[in-house]
Fold each of these.
Amino acid sequence: MANKKKVIVTGFEPFGEHAVNSSWVAVRELERLGLDEAVDLYVCEVPVEYQAVQSLLPSLWEQHLPQLVVHVGVSGLATTVTLEQCGHNKGYKRPDNCRFCPASQCCMEDGPDCISSLLDMDTVCERVNDSNVGVAVSVSKDAGRYLCDYTYYSSLFLGHGRCAFIHVPPLGKPYSSQQLGRALQAVVREMLTLLEVANTEEEEQCKHSH
């Protein structure tokens, strides 16, 4: 199985009022469920620290050469599983778990203001909601200007858009860890299907252009 697809899914460690971070709980549940035989799933817990994210992300992309990286974070405001379409470069004023904040308040000094995922989150959302997974999914264009948004932007840049960010509500508000795990499984499967289609179309275009 040399052609297994590599997918990385990350969750975050506890921070602030989130003594248990539902994002990591949901990712562990996804790991237990798995994606499918043809997918090599690698999960990891990300520190809620700007500098740790800066050193961790390049190594994840370079070592594993994943087809797709999906970051999962918790949002105290979310009541649905929320797919973020884009990451933002500026506006990082909130100190992290080490009480550190980037002096420039941005991810990359000369980077674009916003980077969008290659994946059309509206399509993913529609398909998952149609599949009766039992969890409501929605789409957002503002990942919140904290570690979630910071991680997403950095990863979108490193992975040329082959990246996604999913916000999950805190546990029990309203979903259990099992429900969140199942929702992540459904969402990531749809994302892989969309990427597959995009890759096939690219190959077709290459053939025609030669």
Amino acid sequence: MPADSTIFAAEVKVEDHFQSLPERSKHEDFIRRAVDLLVERVVFGRSTRTSRVVEWAAPDDIRKCIDLKPREGPVSHEQLLVLMADVARYSVNTAHPYFVNQLFSSVDPYGLIGQWLTDALNPSVYTFEVAPVFTLMEEEVLREMRSIVGYRDGDGDGIFCPGGSIANGYAISCARYFMHPEIKTKGVYAVPKLVMFTSELAHYSTRKMAGFMGIGSENCINVKADKCGKMDVEDLEQKIKAAVEDGCKPFMVTATSGTTVFGAFDPIIPIAEVCKKYKVWLHVDAAWGGGALMSKKHKHLLRGIEMADSVTWNPHKLLAAPQQCSTFLTKHKTILKECHSSNATYLFQKDKFYDTSYDTGDKHIQCGRRADVLKFWFMWKAKGHSGFEKHIDKVFDNAKYFLDHIKQRNGFRIVLEKPECTNVMFWYVPKCLRGCETDPDYNERLHKVAPKIKERMIKEGCMMVTYQPQGELVNFFRIVFQNSALDHKDMIYFADEFERLGSEIMV
């Protein structure tokens, strides 16, 4: 390989050639100004605590403020910069410390640079030929993630996916193929009536993907959850037995490590024992809670995860990698390739001059695919495992502090006394409802409080916290902590804001 100086000399010659073109100067100036705008006004300017989380505008107002229609002719660079600023202005500021609305937030500076580098290189990761660094990088990162899960060194496989929902779909695909490999060529007509099982509190993607893949959402059978949100293992076994007696073929159970609302961790070990008894595939959806594996203090929440046949783990959630960064991991070394490969000879030729085992794209259902690994790898390099561990411990500490704090304040009612993850669920009870708990219309009135508070917080832009009903529980708030830049003072701010926004509400 030539020395670095030789490489740079060659690059300078190419650069000299393009410097003679006026287009380079024009585009370089625009890129530098655009990057300056992003850094100053988006990355840092909008992430201060004094800025707004969102500048609310109705759909018609946004259409008036931003020319959203493609046009016949080009606009100037000045106009493009104005458009950039307007798009940022009316977008939700997910990097803001007080955006705690979803299971993602913040902008990690190292992850952001990794994402920018990805976009600048514009790769598609399917063969070593066109993505030599990224095919190797993916395998190293996925191997380390499998090791953290507890799979034996050298076992298993994994892929980066466009979101946790698709990762859960890969689990269904692999589990079905594992039980009935003829499904790949003969389709659903060649197999028995397949049924799968998941908690009633599991992410909706499992049922959605069951419908998408021809199994049918009705054949994704709900298993009861207990009062803490965990899967009821006795109910699981009873429903597997009932399905068998009904002539169906159970093939998969999806457990959840970190449910979307309650943040509950299903008991993996007893679920795995049931799966082993009935010879069904165990998948663990750890899209949200998987990050806890990076912490010695909190990894016990996923005890037994190494028993799973497959795992979904989204670094863009609890580990704060930029969107999107999702993985599917499995202990079965060849199943992804066997299940999904099509051996397209125009892309995956076997007579190339290098080792074609590095052409990993055929095990994906995608062809063109982003290098989502780079931003996560770059973060991992910058922080180390110890940095991720500190991050996890900090967000768990913030969640505990916030929960303990609101327990001591008037107006807050807790949904779950001891949440396992960083989800904290509560009702805020305005003054007009205090002391009215025995009134027949109390729950009906309480149900209306959260939407009113949410409207006020969004229109002011002071914070963003989601709410939802759950079963018989009327609308309650769910605040999720994933941003380790927050501290205990911010926890008090959130409580103060709920009190300010909600105490005088009338329902």
Amino acid sequence: MASSDAQDLPVDDDSESDSNTVHNGSVISTVPDRHGFLGGTQYSTDAKQSISPNVMLRREQKWLHMFKHWEQFMEKNYKLVRDRCRKGIPSSVRPRAWLFLCGGKVVLDKSNNMFYNLKQQKGDARWIDDIKKDLHRQFPYHEMFVDQEGNGQKDLFEVLKAYSIRNKSVGYSQAQAPIAAFLLMHMPAEQAFWCLVSICDNYLVGYYSPGMETLQLDGDILFGLLKKVAPNVYKHLKKQKVDPILYMTEWFLCVFTRTLPWDSILRVWDMFLCEGVKIIFKVALILLKFSLGQTGVMKKCPTMYETLEVLRNPPQEIMEERFLVTQILRVNLTEEDFAREHKRQLVKRQAATALSAKKNRQQK
């Protein structure tokens, strides 16, 4: 999962006033964008269209009120919380909102300094080596992680190490690193750790286990749902026998932190932490539908190779915040649709397993 940012970075030796040489020899901007990026594919020179200060202040006050009565809102007025997440959480309260939404606040309050105790432990050598190898690959052009000796990479190491010790059955997976780094951009290490715990253990259950059977099952569910959302794309992928695991792995494992523009990622995460994994499915369905479903695209994809190239590089316009959020809210899938497809795929897998076992017995 090495980052491709280094290949995308323009180098201009004549622009000393606007650039600077960093530890790895690459030349990047000395002025971070509004999200803290100094270069790479996520760097943006565009100023986000701002909501009026009065509207933003009202939204912030509403969230602060909800924090004071969180359990009551979640139990009796969840739809209001969901609607406010869909509108976009104000950046000033987003870190606290994410901590509350994912359940990290609950486990943090009960943790009795567990994170700091885990930091003191050495951890399993095999996971420690893997974590260290991956540190420099996580958003290398963000101001938090650009310095290999900086606090960003140190905190990232501690968060990932602590999780590998706490959950020995999973240990460490490469795909956890961008999620942990993403969280660290928004909150202190201890809070990021407990958010990571909640996400891995409650949202992405089984995704990081050996064999990734849960991810494969969700890939089949995604493909089944695609038949309803975009039947023409479904037929194209089925005809070419494109296994979902070939295009959806990074989307799901990293919750789009390595795929979408930054403003889009933030909005997706606002909804994901409130509504759960179905948001990942909806974003994936949108990328599939609008990447391959546009006029003439499938004709230009006569083989699996061209099809996968399109899916690995979705058109920029369909990933932009306004378009993507609008389409997420338009996806016509109910809770019953998700439950029905999940059950259908489980039955298919069980039948396939039973048939395979029967063949093995007959061969013996």
Amino acid sequence: MAGEVVVDALPYFDQGYDETGVREALKVLLGKIQALALVEEETRRYRPTKNYLEYLPQAQYHHFETDIMKTEFERLQSRLPIEMMSMKRYELPQPPPGKMTDVSAWSECVENSQAQLEHQALRLLNLELMQEYGTHSWKIYNDILVKMMEAAQKQLSELKKKIQEINLQRKSEQTVAGAKLKDLENSWVGLVSKNYEIERACVEMEKELTEMEKHKKGLRADR
């Protein structure tokens, strides 16, 4: 499998991981191995080329900008102060002094006041609707959130259970494998020791044979 990292270790059986510097060294080693595996997988997936995005059309970064965004960018580039929100629509001014007797000016002021009264009446209606139905809506919303939270907690609990089962399985397998490796290691040490003893005995026997040959030659010479 691409990107798979095989670690030659049995953490549940091996000893010495808690010693100073060992855990940090393992983290660095595993990080390097994973990084190299990712690089190898990436190089296998993409052929080497000067620009692997050359088949894509040229990026147009200004297509998403609206007129308001363009105006704001221009203001920022010119370092102009931001325009404050106009409160004129919420004011109820009377006609200017020169138009105090102008019927059309007073009609405009009356229309403005009627529009603001209608706006306030709409706000009151929204508040009444919120007071009557808002609580129920929030209860439903909270019930949905509680169900989502319970589902997430259930999923988290199942994942933790699976992780625990995997860790227990790993511990069991590594304990068995570690004991078997220990037996094999002891057997290997015993065989190596026996081979060494056999080789040493062979050397001693060869030495004795050489001495016997020399002694036999000496007896023949005396005759």
